Amino acid sequence: MSSTIKLVASDMDGTFLRDNKEFDEPRFKRILHRMTQQGARFVLASGNQYIQLKQSFPGYADTLSYVAENGGYVVDSGKLIYTAHLDEKDLRAIYNTVMPDPNLYTIFCGEHASYIEKRHATPEFIGLVKYYFPSLEIVDNLLEINDNILKACEVMQPDDTDSYYQMLRAQLPSHIIPTTSGHGSIDLILTGINKAFGIDLLVKRWNITPKECIAFGDAANDIEMLSYVGCGYAMANAMDGIADYAQKQAPSNNDDGVLEVLDTLF
């Protein structure tokens, strides 16, 4: 079967990574070597920033490809091939919707860094999000940033994620959509931008087909990707309903489910 697989896409948090944010790197390198020999490529597909994703693969990060920012930033082996920017009107609409709520913490994610307003930049909050936003800069006003903004990330108490998702969906312009990994954060991105969109750019670039792709995911922002590929794997720890969009199930992230499946395929 492996000879028919040309692209393997995996979400990171709750999927490729264990809950402690680690993975079996020697095992992955062995699998990656076999994949390369058989003409398959590995793609990290995540809502996280490109700079953060690269840090998980020191020394060989540029041999991989990335669909970062939930499809808003696509990199093929070190070469940027696509970015999706929110324009000034979009950013102002987001800002005016979320800023009055003291329980929402807003981060604007740009091409060069991520940004948070000084009033939200408590040591506790910075400590909470620094792993996901290693290039986080503190600013006076998010609307005065000199950077191309790819998405807005809203952070809230995990139990409030669904209610804020519904609120944002109702109050924001229809071309700005909320998407969530279900872990106390919601990304606001342009409609049509998702992990499947980014993977499709790579599929066309590499002259392959969706049927030659497999993907692994655990959350709502993986649905389009799992539906797009020839065979989608929902993790055993996936959110309720995600398995409905996948053809197969992989062991949990803490049981190295992605690597377990890939070891049987390559």
TrEMBL record:
One of its GO terms (cellular component) is cytosol. Pfam families: Hydrolase_3. The keyword Hydrolase applies. Keywords: Hydrolase. Coiled coil: none annotated. One of its GO terms (molecular function) is phosphatase activity. This is Cof-like hydrolase. InterPro entries: Cof, HAD-like_sf, HAD-SF_hydro_IIB, HAD_sf. It comes from the Bacteria. PROSITE patterns: COF_2.
